[in-house]
């Protein structure tokens, strides 16, 4: 909301155009998903719906990927001009990508994930890629350099998306393995 308000006030963007601009970034998609899932869990619990263990794990992976990709590939291109924008950037790209997966690692009920949940991580990033590629094909502007079909060509972009999907799946596999290993640890009766 702060980013939205700053862009309207400081940059004179119209609200509808600003929503479209912000949702051009996977960072916003994943942070929104985490906020909605966390809000659901806080208000209604984790029994079902967005609180399902597979969705909790997938959202931890989505936001962790945001942190990794931004801090390894993209931060050099982003230079927030004001302290307020620097704080927003830090929340989107560092605090949430660390805090949500940390909460998941230690705050979830262990042993709830199965290997069949592996695919739960893919719908959001693949939907985002399809959306982003469509927008880019219409406007000539792609949100991220590694999916810029205008510069890289569709073949390279397809390979990059496959690589990113593999990264998501690999992290989800690690999350499932962690969850299953934690579920079978013996309880100390000290």
Beta strands, count = 0
Give the N-terminus to C-terminus distance in angstroms. Answer: 49 Å
Order of helix and strand elements from N to C terminus: HHHHHHHH
* Mean pLDDT reading: 86
Q: How would you describe this structure to a colleague?
A:
The protein is mainly alpha-helical and 190 residues long. It has one domain. It is 71% helix and 0% strand. The chain is built from 8 helices and no strands. The protein has helices at residues 2-11, 15-22, 26-44, 53-74, 83-107, 123-139, 149-152, 154-183. Helix 4 crosses helix 5. The longest helix is centred in the C-terminal third of the chain and has 30 residues, at 154-183. The chain starts with a helix and ends in a 7-residue tail after the last helix. The model has no long low-confidence stretch (mean pLDDT 86).
Q: What labels would you give this structure?
A:
single chain, 190 residues, mainly alpha
Quick structural overview:
This protein has 190 residues and is mainly α. The protein is built from 8 helices and no strands. The mean pLDDT is 86.
Produce the secondary structure layout.
Layout (H helix, E strand, L loop, with lengths): L1 H10 L3 H8 L3 H19 L8 H22 L8 H25 L15 H17 L9 H4 L1 H30 L7
Helix pairs in contact: 1-2, 3-4, 3-5, 4-5, 4-8
């Amino acid at each position: 909301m702060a980013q939205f308000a700053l862009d309207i006030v400081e940059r004179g963007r119209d609200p509808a155009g600003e929503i479209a601009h912000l949702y051009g970034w996977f960072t916003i998609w994943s942070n929104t998903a985490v906020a909605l899932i966390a809000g659901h869990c806080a208000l209604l619990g984790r029994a079902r719906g967005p609180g399902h263990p597979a969705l909790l794990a997938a959202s931890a992976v989505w936001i962790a990927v945001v942190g990794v990709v931004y801090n390894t590939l993209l931060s050099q291109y982003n230079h927030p001009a004001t302290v307020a924008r620097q704080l927003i950037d830090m929340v989107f790209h560092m605090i949430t990508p660390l805090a949500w997966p940390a909460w998941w690692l230690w705050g979830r009920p262990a042993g709830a994930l199965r290997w069949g949940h592996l695919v739960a991580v893919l719908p959001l990033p693949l939907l985002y890629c399809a959306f982003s590629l469509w927008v880019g094909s219409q406007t000539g502007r792609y949100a991220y350099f590694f999916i810029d079909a205008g510069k890289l060509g569709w073949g390279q972009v397809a390979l990059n998306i496959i690589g990113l999907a593999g990264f998501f799946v690999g992290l989800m596999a690690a999350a499932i393995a962690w969850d299953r290993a934690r579920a079978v640890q013996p309880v100390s009766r000290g």
